[in-house]
Fold:
Amino acid sequence: MNHQILNRLSPALLVSAGIFLGLMAFSTAAIADQHSGVKTEHGKWIEAVKATGVFFNARYRYEHVEDKGFTRRANANTLQTHLGYKSNIHHGVSGLIELENAHAVGANDYNSTTNGRADLPTVADPENTELNQAYLSYHDLPGTVVSLGRQRLALDNQRYIGAVGFRQNEQTFDALTVINSSVPDLGLTYVYVKQVLRIFGDDNILGSLNSNSHVLHAVYSDLDIANIVGYAIFLMWMMMRQRSLQRAWVCVPAANMRWVIPSRCSIRPNMPTKPTMRAIPTAMA
Structure:
């Protein structure tokens, strides 16, 4: 039984766990050194690691699902880990690379969409190891940052463009982004999306979508009562034309709201085929 558990642990997870435990040990020593007023080699080492841009985070998640369509309940214990490196800006260029692992802790008592447990309710957190982000950014244009590669995108309340962060396998995008802030209180963003790496993982046929999509986004923030947000989204999935959608929204969310209220938006969809709003799931997921 122990051998089976060890075989299921991915190499990325083991490496991440080893690095995490090592950093924890040195961090504890560094904290103790700071309290004692003595900076030892441990403290210097942990500061040097932080300065390099190496980062690590882990998140445990438990989800329980009761579905009347099933005789049994789903219980999903999962662990998400991220291990990556973010560089400083050198000659106008910076970069980031990040690995992600999602792993079931204990029994797979849920349908992850890829584990063959169709007799249980679905919790869409499949086991998966992937290159979550890898991109370069160019900073030398006035008030502009251009990023190219696999990256996390999150616009507004993430209703259409987002990382679906409540799931363990994050959604990221192979994309080109251009962000301009040269005009005071006005942020402009253009995104071209070539591929969407979805929450279902590499083993699911719906785990990725080839795309030819464009996003325009603007936000004006110099009002006391509200931010004015305008955006146009042109979504096109290759080989899935029935899911294509073009729409433009102009929204004025209330000052303290974290979401856009539909009644305050002017919606003018232009759908060349006949999809409904349900054809485009939340945050492109």
User: Anything to note?
Assistant: Residues 19 and 56 are 8 Å apart (CA to CA).
